[in-house]
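Q: What changes when calcium ion is included in the input?
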Amino acid sequence: MLTSTHTGNSAPPAQKTDAAMPILIDEVTGLPNRVGFVQKLAAMIDGLHQQNQQNQANKTLPPETLAVFFISIEDFQDFIDVLDHALAEKLLASVAQRLVALGGEAAVTARLVGGEFAMVKQGLNGSEDESVFAESIIRSFQLHPVNLEMLFELDLPLSIGIARAPDHGGEPLHLMHNTNLALSKARKNRGRPIHFFDSSLKERALRQGMIQLELRNALDNNELRAYYQPKISLKTGKIMGMETLMRWEHPSYGMIPPNDFIPTAERTGLIAPMTEWIMQQACRDTKAWIDAGYGKDLRVAINLSTIHFRRQSVIGNITTALENSGIDPNNVEIEITEGLLLHEDEIVNATFSWLRDIGIHVAVDDFGIGYSSLSYLQRFPLNCLKIDTSFIRNLHESKVDAAITRGVIDLAHSIDIEVVAEGVELEFHRQFLIECGCDIGQGYLWSKPLSAESFTKMLAKGGVLPP
Ligand code: C2E
Ligand code: CA
Ligand code: CA
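A: The predicted holo structure follows.
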């Protein structure tokens, strides 16, 4: 055990009133606050260091470790919204008490901010022990909901990030930063809401930081690429069009997929110039393919972010792309997601009317995953629904997904909307979709997204894809 200098949660230091002294205690819970936790953690790390030096000198015991847990009440804001202020404080105090009891004597528990707590615990032997301990915390809150003055029984979902000293940091702020990275990962993974820090998280965070800093240059340095994935007519087996998918060819990181940078682009507003660029590129490439005789009805689909569509009229961007390339609007389709259609919005309505008037197709992407209200099908002039990959992927083993897919195809056809199935990977899926009367397929069964050069070769072979 450590010859620790910490005092645990049992005896918090008496708070001084001196204005120059930092406040170390959280008023709501009586636990150390963030500053208090940093101090306690620093003392415990010092103790750990001394103990390990002694152990090493005596060659007696294996090195000790300290485990740091960040424990977060998920959707804390939702709880705050339904509880009044006093009850919310009682909730936090009650969670704090429970955590202190679960931590036992060898732990220090603190409240960091909002619904986030921290705990540092000694005496756990490596990740198996740490994992069992974190699971026991989650289970305790699942089995015994927090009872608030007999009014509410709250079943609190928790996420826990874990890092360890000295392996993941020998200095409090560094260790806490790494624990926080692990917590962020745990939050994204509701099925298993416990995550250990590992160096790949750090690499990911660094890469994310790099993306934020360098995305601005990607456009200027000509590092964005338009890739094309064929869409196949299930009636003829021929390429009837393609979806444009953005890539970033980074000089040191190689090809970066859009899911890694589009969210940053949306947050920073860069999505507007980036979309403008890809629209121009896609319209120019498609016009060249049409002019080369690869099909006068070839249709190019371009993804438009909701945030971009709402924030400003995209009419100007589209007009420029059409004029510069000379492409017929009938050869162009835009893909939007359901979220855009849920609320009345003047800009959105006006843009839809304009798109319909000039003949650009509109497809609803990722159909089926987001919302249950289908009333928007009546309100907007839509041409196409793209059934989301998550339904298509399991067609061969899920009766429910098969029934939903068949139902969506029937529904869409009854109101003259065509249907694309995306993420088609198996021959079985293709057969099933043909049998259901689905119009178009897209997926690795035919081809991954390709550079313009490779896509040209595919068209040159006759635009007929196996199988
Ligand atoms: P999305 O619009 O749903 O695009 C389909 C994604 O599924 C693409 O991923 C595609 O490569 C992938 N995919 C296609 N066939 C299969 C298959 O058979 N199996 C599997 N597992 N996946 C398949 P990608 O290219 O990584 O794009 C991801 C997302 O990034 C897109 O999802 C879209 O939301 C966004 N995105 C891509 N390009 C743009 C763009 O230019 N603008 C905007 N706003 N978003 C874009
Ligand atoms: Ca899409
Ligand atoms: Ca999609």
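Observations recorded in class: The pocket of calcium ion (ligand 3) is lined by residues 365-366, 386, 422 (CB under 6 Å).
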